[in-house]
Amino acid sequence: MSKRRILVLHLAFLVFTAIPPVVYADMCFECHSGWEDESGSPSASYESDVHFRAGLGCADCHGGNPELDDMDDVRRGRGYKGIPRPREIPGFCATCHNDPGYMIKHNPALPTDQLDKYKTSVHGKRLLEEGDEKAANCVSCHSVHNIERPQIPASTVYPLNLPEVCAGCHSDPEYMAGYGIPASQFDDYAESVHGHALLVEKDLGAPACNDCHGNHGATPPGVTSISAVCGLCHALISDEFAVSPHKAAFDEMGYPECEGCHSNHLVLEPELYWIGTSDSSLCVDCHSADDGTEGLAKAEKIHEIVLKLKKSYETAEAKVDESELKGMMVTDERFILKEITQAMIRTRTVIHSLDFEKVSEAAGEGLEKADQAYRAATTKVEEYYFRRKGLGIATLIITILVIALYLRIRSIDKSHPLR
Ligand code: HEC
Ligand code: HEC
Ligand code: HEC
Ligand code: HEC
Ligand code: HEC
Ligand code: HEC
Ligand code: HEC
Ligand code: HEC
Ligand code: HEC
Questions:
Q1: Per-residue pLDDT at 22
Q2: Residue 222: per-residue pLDDT
Q3: Reduced to 3 states, what is the DSSP secondary structure of residue 375?
Q4: In whole angstroms, what is the distance from residue 265 CA to residue 273 CA?
């Protein structure tokens, strides 16, 4: 064999192996593409399906002999499964996805536990145990003939798209009637800090429905798991809560840890009035002045010190703004303001320990910095007035000198001998 022939063969081999598996030879796909309406038909949308890219044909899911060129023959032939009923779908998808031996050949990293987890979910129990076909099955969330990897933005289970998919059923009061649960989860979520962060700001760090409910095990997190759910992302706060007197008390009452004060779907931006003794505070929901606990006394003290920190920050910030407006450099002061913001976040975090010492320590750092920023900005404002005063005096002296000079020149002019 000449070197040239070897090279050509090599190239041919490379080209051959680079071509995606030929699905077009599949008679199912070929015939269906021929008569189906283009848009939305199984074969048209199937070309953008992850299974198509993995080299699977229609028959890999629906069964039947892909070499036959007649649908009736296909139906009569062995192994044709037809269209699965909703309750058959989990088992239908799981023939491959629950089979590690099969999946490892395609993608060893892909978990094979979807059906097992699905069975533990409210959806799975309703559908598989009670035959309630209104519960979500695999294709309710993943779509069909258009299934994509979750990481791809076009996927129905991509974080930005998923809430709408759940809302398709859960926000439809008619569809959900009879279950005795609200149909407000999506609307509440969309209004929450989380929904705003994800859906408006496209912040993928914010939770979508599945981050709290699980992908396949969709169940309302239980009393014990809910703090773990919030704590996945709010770890520092969860740690502070864990050492607070509320931890044991809430566990005993069977009371959800974070949700009781923050809600589950309508999580709003926290406000200072939440803690304190006013009628609108959260604390008075459970505590009263004579309940024999230090609850309200601490609520009052914590409220006061956090309020003081907030006010000090505002005063310092106003002074820094004033100084900047007068044209002074305030880079250092702005940096200190940022440090105060950090201290404020730390303070709001340790509030969850209900430990006044801890809160006042965190707030104390902020108060000190606020004082520092205020003093530095005040000095700059004073410096400005000092410079302005100096400039005024200098201008006055120069003006007097100019007038004197002018008068002098005039007197010289008048008395000039050559005039
Ligand atoms: C020669 C054309 C042709 C071939 C080949 C073909 N189909 Fe079909 N198929 C049809 C038509 C047309 C229908 C619409 C129902 C009808 O009128 O028979 C259909 C219906 C279906 C349906 C709807 C359910 C049903 O039973 O009616 C499924 C699922 C299906 N085909 C899958 C397949 C699979 C899988 C293959 C390959 C193993 C295949 N088809 C091969 C033409 C074809
Ligand atoms: C990954 C598995 C899978 C593959 C691959 C697949 N299907 Fe399906 N197909 C399903 C499931 C599941 C349903 C039932 C969907 C439902 O209940 O909404 C379905 C429904 C259908 C239906 C009836 C409903 C409809 O959308 O018209 C037809 C026809 C059909 N498939 C044809 C095909 C053809 C043709 C191909 C190849 C181009 C194909 N399917 C490939 C899983 C698959
Ligand atoms: C015939 C076997 C088979 C059946 C049946 C099947 N799948 Fe798949 N599925 C695969 C293969 C193979 C892949 C590609 C794995 C890869 O390359 O990552 C895949 C990939 C996927 C992925 C993307 C996973 C990822 O992150 O890469 C999803 C989602 C998926 N399938 C859902 C379904 C659903 C839902 C059904 C039922 C309607 C179904 N599959 C039926 C074999 C199958
Ligand atoms: C209630 C909605 C829902 C249902 C029902 C559902 N899935 Fe998923 N599925 C998801 C979400 C959400 C993800 C992952 C998204 C992510 O990782 O960000 C996912 C991911 C996957 C993946 C990628 C690998 C993995 O486990 O992360 C596969 C494969 C898959 N699902 C198959 C199935 C199968 C098979 C069924 C039915 C037994 C099913 N899904 C039912 C929502 C659902
Ligand atoms: C096809 C419609 C449908 C889709 C899509 C759907 N669900 Fe459901 N879901 C239901 C039905 C029906 C129930 C049963 C209600 C019940 O038993 O209270 C349910 C139950 C639940 C429950 C348990 C409620 C309870 O009573 O405790 C949770 C949690 C849940 N779904 C979350 C989700 C999430 C998260 C998604 C999206 C990833 C989703 N669902 C998508 C129909 C759907
Ligand atoms: C930040 C976490 C979180 C997010 C995000 C979240 N949920 Fe929930 N969800 C919960 C908690 C906690 C409960 C339990 C409520 C209880 O037991 O009182 C719950 C309960 C539910 C229930 C049971 C009925 C009810 O309202 O109590 C459904 C259905 C539900 N969620 C659906 C959704 C859907 C759909 C989305 C997305 C639009 C979503 N959830 C987003 C935490 C979350
Ligand atoms: C997947 C991660 C994740 C989970 C789970 C999560 N959060 Fe969040 N949370 C975030 C992110 C990210 C933000 C910041 C949003 C923003 O303002 O940009 C946030 C913001 C908040 C805020 C507002 C903070 C502020 O300073 O305005 C509160 C309160 C909150 N979450 C409470 C909860 C509660 C309660 C739970 C459980 C029911 C929970 N979170 C579950 C990621 C998460
Ligand atoms: C007893 C009521 C209560 C409970 C229980 C509670 N919080 Fe808070 N949370 C508050 C108050 C009060 C604030 C601060 C309000 C302020 O000063 O602006 C706050 C603030 C926050 C913030 C904002 C912090 C920041 O940086 O601005 C987050 C996030 C948060 N909580 C998450 C959680 C999580 C997660 C849990 C459960 C582990 C939890 N909370 C339990 C009352 C509560
Ligand atoms: C859901 C009800 C509930 C809410 C809301 C609540 N608490 Fe409590 N709190 C309790 C219970 C129950 C105890 C335990 C009382 C006991 O040990 O007898 C407790 C204990 C305490 C304690 C320890 C008291 C002691 O004497 O050791 C403090 C401090 C406290 N709470 C502060 C607060 C503050 C501040 C708020 C508002 C941000 C608040 N609580 C909101 C139920 C609540």
A1: 45
A2: 47
A3: helix
A4: 21
Map out the domains of the chain with their CATH numbers. Answer: 295-414 (1.20.140)
Residue that is written with structure tokens 């089979």 in the block: 99
The DSSP secondary structure of 206-254, one letter per residue, reads: S--HHHHH-SS---PPPHHHHHHHHHHH-HHHHHHHHTSHHHHHHHHHT
Question: Ligand 4 — pocket residues by CB below 6 A?
Answer: 90, 93-94, 97, 110-111, 114-115, 118, 123, 136-138, 140-142, 150, 157, 162, 210, 215-216, 218
The string of DSSP letters for 27-49 reads HHHHHHHHHS-STT-HHHHHTTS
Place of tokens 């004082």: 371
Using an 8 Å Cβ cutoff, are 241 and 258 in contact? yes
270 lines ligand 9 (CB under 6 A): no
- Per-10-residue mean pLDDT for the chain, 419 residues long? 57 49 70 82 91 95 94 93 96 96 94 93 94 96 96 96 97 95 96 98 96 77 60 92 93 85 94 95 93 94 97 97 93 96 97 96 97 95 88 91 90 71
- Token digits of residue 66: 């892909």
Q: What is the distance between the alpha carbons of residues 396 and 389, in angstroms, rounded to a whole number?
A: 11
Is 23 in a helix, a strand, or coil? Answer: coil
3-class secondary-structure state, position 73? helix
Instruction: Kindly give the distance from the C-alpha atom of residue 279 to the centroid of ligand 9, in angstroms, as a whole number.
Output: 16
Q: In the block, which residue shows the tokens 């410096």?
A: 383
Spell out which residues line ligand 8, taking CB within 6 angstroms: 227, 230-231, 234, 237-238, 241, 246, 257-258, 260-262, 270-272, 274-275, 282, 306, 345, 348-349, 351-352
**Contact (Cβ atoms closer than 8 angstroms) between residue 152 and residue 245:** no
And the tokens for 275?
């803690």
In 10 A of CB 377, how many CB atoms? 27
Q: What is the pLDDT of residue 387?
A: 87
Q: Give the pLDDT confidence score for residue 15 in this predicted structure.
A: 47
What's the CA dihedral at 300, 305, 310, 314 to 10 degrees?
A: 130
Helices 295-325 and 331-350 pack at an angle, to 10 degrees, of 170
Rg (C-alpha) for the chain, rounded Å, is: 36
pTM: 0.90
